[in-house]
Design a protein that fits this description.
The chain has 18 helices and 17 strands. By secondary structure, it is α/β, with parallel strands linked by helices. It folds into three domains: about 70 residues; about 210 residues, 2-Layer Sandwich (Endonuclease, Chain A); about 160 residues, Endonuclease, Chain A, CATH 3.30.870. The strands form two sheets. A 15-stranded mixed sheet has the order 4-3-2-5-6-7-1-8-16-14-13-9-11-12-17, sandwiched between helices.
Length: about 475
């Protein structure tokens, strides 16, 4: 039978039909697949209620580079997540049991400063840690003094001399029987944190990554990063700010190459809110049951000082964009002077236009940025905004003696905001962030003193090389601005 001519003819006919079907149907399958992907992406755009600039940026990438843009969008394009909100309902239910600590002061919020969607806490102590040495020393001291628990959340933990030293201190406390938990963002710790976390687990501490990079592991977008930085000791004292555990941000001795940034050591009733944020994020990342933290969430923290603080979390699990809304409100209510310090500046259109309008009304608006940040593409994209702000009368200052990484917002010497959020669309609309608002004269004075040490190290935008660019470079900068929401 194998010598029969029937089989070669059959194979030839089958090959012809397969070739015909492939040529005839494959282009249509590609078209159908593209149509389905377009429907999915469009539905996701509307479901997440993205702002127009974000939609336009993703559309540019998808249209001109579809084979790159489509997978990147499904990997990194998420903004809000119903799954996240649902997974934290149990945590919120327990947190409500300690919400009496909020309600006692909620009615005292000043509506002329912000809409009190979250409680204001009186009776707190606030100590500014104005540089990397101060923050490092405070972290080491608080770790050594902790009696019951150490809870640390950070975007970056580097396997360098600073990160390794901090891990060794945590291991010593874990061996003493202290409850040690470390939460590191999976992207921020990518390629550097694995050995340190394994070492912690081996010695009795708990260490987990927040939101693995592969969406199949989390069933959501890898774009949703935890950018919060806080360390809480015994549930009563917290170090909060924008500094990561990395030698670029802190260390035992002064280093000219260290980023210029600050944190704050806070104690008092407001720490109850930091506990709620940490427990919420920890339970999501570790799949722990919130009920095991019931005693921590219900503990009453006695007043420790005279500072008034308000904590506001923002992220994919929070309805709306409360941190962004609060900043817009502060800009609109500014009567005299507004100062912003941020390492990266890619604002959305509403915030951007609000700054221009405020400058046009005669208020002094000042923005301090690093002349050269550690993300050159972001520097390239920001120039579109800076040129227009400079023309509108906004005082744009470049910090020229290193990388300034601080996040600070001061309005009329009456209210200030510090924390983890940059003035960019990723921080305000995508990342998990936390902001600390202050209204006490003493705390704002400390922040103003920190600013006064920064001013001599700055020069005006229009005196920099960035302002003196060719027409061709400006065209490229304008194009980079269109892709700004993706950075």
């Amino acid at each position: 039978m194998n010598d029969s001519p029937f089989w070669p003819q059959l194979v030839s006919i089958a090959h012809t039909w397969i070739h015909f079907l492939w040529v005839a149907l494959f282009p249509h399958l590609l078209t159908l697949g593209g149509f389905i992907l377009a429907l999915l992406i469009t539905g996701r755009f509307f479901n997440e209620k993205r702002n127009p600039s974000n939609i336009f940026a993703w559309s540019l990438l998808i249209i001109f580079m579809p084979y790159l843009g489509v997978p990147l969008y499904f990997l990194f394009g998420g903004r809000k997540s119903r799954k996240l909100a649902k997974s934290k309902k149990n945590i919120r239910a327990i947190a409500e049991e300690v919400s009496l600590a909020e309600s006692e002061w909620k009615d005292q919020a000043d509506p002329s400063i912000w809409n009190p969607k979250q409680g204001i806490y009186h009776g707190n102590d606030f100590i500014l840690l104005g540089d990397g040495v101060s923050t490092y020393e405070a972290l080491c001291y608080e770790i050594e003094q902790a009696k019951n628990s150490i809870h640390i959340m950070t975007y970056i933990l580097s396997n360098d001399e600073v990160g390794a030293a901090m891990v060794e201190k945590l291991i010593l406390k874990a061996k003493e029987g202290i409850e040690v938990r470390l939460l590191v963002d999976a992207l921020g710790g990518l390629g550097r944190v694995g050995p340190l976390m394994r070492k912690l687990r081996k010695n009795g501490a708990h260490a987990v990554r927040f939101m693995p990079m592969l969406p199949l592991q989390t069933k959501t977008s890898a774009n949703l990063r935890n950018h919060r930085k806080m360390a809480i000791f015994d549930g009563k004292r917290a170090i909060v700010g924008g500094q990561n555990i990395d030698k670029r941000f802190m260390g035992p001795t002064a280093d000219p190459a260290c980023f210029h940034d600050f944190s704050a050591l806070i104690s008092g009733p407001v720490v109850a809110h930091f506990n709620m944020i940490f427990v919420s994020d920890w339970c999501f990342a570790s799949k722990s049951k919130p009920t095991q933290f019931k005693s921590l969430l219900q503990q009453r923290i006695e007043p420790k000082g005279k500072h008034t603080l308000k904590v506001m979390s923002s992220g994919p699990d929070v309805p709306g964009d409360p941190l962004w809304e609060a900043l817009i409100t502060l800009i609109q209510e500014c009567q005299h002077e507004l100062t912003i310090v941020t390492p990266y500046f890619i604002p959305d259109e509403v915030l951007f236009r609000s700054l221009i309008v405020k400058a046009h009304t005669g208020r002094r608006v000042r923005i301090i940025l690093p002349e050269k940040s550690n993300h050159r593409m972001v520097d390239f994209a920001r120039n579109y905004y800076l040129r227009q702000l400079d023309r509108a009368g906004v005082e744009v200052l470049f910090f020229h003696t290193g990388m300034i990484h601080a996040k600070l917002f001061v309005v009329d010497n009456k209210v200030a905001m510090m924390g983890s959020a940059n003035i960019d669309m990723r921080s305000l609309f995508v990342n998990f962030e936390v902001g600390v608002f202050l209204t006490s004269e003493a705390s704002i004075e400390e922040l103003q003193n920190w600013l006064h040490n920064i001013y001599p190290q700055c020069h005006p935008y229009h005196a920099s090389e960035t302002a003196q660019v060719s027409d061709n470079r400006r065209i490229l900068e304008d194009f980079a601005h269109l892709l700004g929401p993706l950075l």
